[in-house]
Amino acid sequence: MKNTFVVLLSLFATSVFAGECDINLESTESMAFKTKEIVVNKNCAEVTLNFKNNGTLPKAVMGHNAVISKKSDMNAVVNDGIAAGLKNNYVKTGDKRVVVATTVIGGGESTSIKFKPDTIKPNEDYVFFCSFPGHSAVMKGIVKLV
Asked: Which pTM value belongs to this model?
């Protein structure tokens, strides 16, 4: 009986911990994210960023992605992303300033990507944003490492 309790307790602890390692982010119909802050748990071995575009337009017209970088790098990442174009999801190939970036998705689509939380350094300011041209001015928020 005691062993069964330990197994059940460890399964529960794993599922709770796993939930803390998932970030669910959604865009709204009005070119915005539903939240202005996402939290990255530094104790996770890996974090999954799940992103859903709740709009209705195709990605070439009104696509969205989710990019995380240092706040100080955001404008340069956006500008280089515009030059990279839609075929590269508006992110410069191999850009070391980018912690993680989802693909650009159209309305009704979802995507996920995994990253290591240790790529976010303590005592640095990080942001998430959409790098589709013109979107980062309003589609952005703060990333907190806890």
From this structure: 0.86
CA 42 – CA 21 distance, rounded (Å): 9
Gyration radius from the chain CA atoms? 17
> Is there a domain that residue 79 lies in?
yes
H/E element, 142: strand 140-145
Contact predicate 99/69, CB 8 Å: yes
Task: Compute how many other C-beta atoms are within 10 angstroms of the C-beta atom of residue 83.
Answer: 9
Q: Does the residue 14 lie in any domain?
A: no
**In which residue are the tokens 């195709």 written?**
58
Number of domains making up the chain:
1
In order of 5, 54, 132, the CA distances from 102 in angstroms are: 40, 15, 12
Q: 7-57, pLDDT tens digit by residue?
A: 333 444 333 344 689 999 999 888 999 999 999 999 999 999 999 999 999
